[in-house]
Please model this.
Amino acid sequence: MPTLGNPQKTIEIIQKYEFAFQKKFGQNFLIDPHVLDKIIAAAGVAKDDCVLEIGPGIGTMTQYLAESARHVVAVEIDSNLIPILNETLSDYNNVTVIHGDILKVDVNQIIEQYNEGRPIKVVANLPYYITTPIIMGLFENKVPIDNITVMVQKEVADRMQVGPGSKDYGALSLAVQYYAEPYIVANVPPNCFMPRPGVGSAVIRLTRHKTSPVEVKEPELMFRLIRASFNQRRKTLQNGLNNSQEVNYSKEQIIEAIESLGLSPSVRGETLTLEQFAALSNAFTSLKNR
Ligand code: SAM
Model:
């Protein structure tokens, strides 16, 4: 049974090790067992699963994961937490703690070693300051993943889930939805953490698409077009693409590509769906190969 996941035990461990929270590492530890149960259930962690946990902290969620999974690999950057994890996880023989920076460790190699290269689940209460690089890094590096179920800042969860027509819609929404199906599992108030974060939080599950929802000949070009379109939100799509350093097509080519989709060059980029960005990207590829 997990011993952590409540305020009393968390305070006890912190005092015993004279642990000082480091803001720069986004340290807000979970102290609510209901939220922990909900995360594990939403991720669908089962007895044959290998789970990667990013930032185990004092090992609270790690204990819950170890109860449900076959193996848990937890990557923690803060050296002060390693002796604490050695104590709080000492009853579990299915946990490997790696002291390192998740943005630098070779996750593919971890999966090869602990799950013979088969897809894993990623579960975490993420350090909010690096939410986007962590998630995009996992997707872009083609890490084999079933789903990523993570606590993030509520506003970021909303941005990942929305479509065109919302002020939150942007490059992150499109990037996430290209790779995965997002689902907001729960909103989580600050009093479920120690110390309390200054922002609201949400648990989001990103289920990796088995096959891509759109066919894009050059995904990297599509992402450049998306970035260019949202960098200058108030501009028309044509002007946004024209002014971007990342998009090297003439004004005439840009107009031709946009019109080939049946759209007006004065349309705003923020109204385009993922399917339309894919079609636009393919139109530029065809222009280039003509
Ligand atoms: N999982 C714990 C919990 O829910 O109570 C702690 C979550 S806390 C929000 C984020 C954790 O990520 C901290 O333990 C922090 O030290 C760790 N962390 C921050 N940056 C990291 C990085 N680049 N690589 C690995 N861990 C990191």
Observations:
- The mean pLDDT is 94.
- The CA atoms of residues 224 and 246 lie 6 Å apart.
- The longest strand covers residues 145-153.
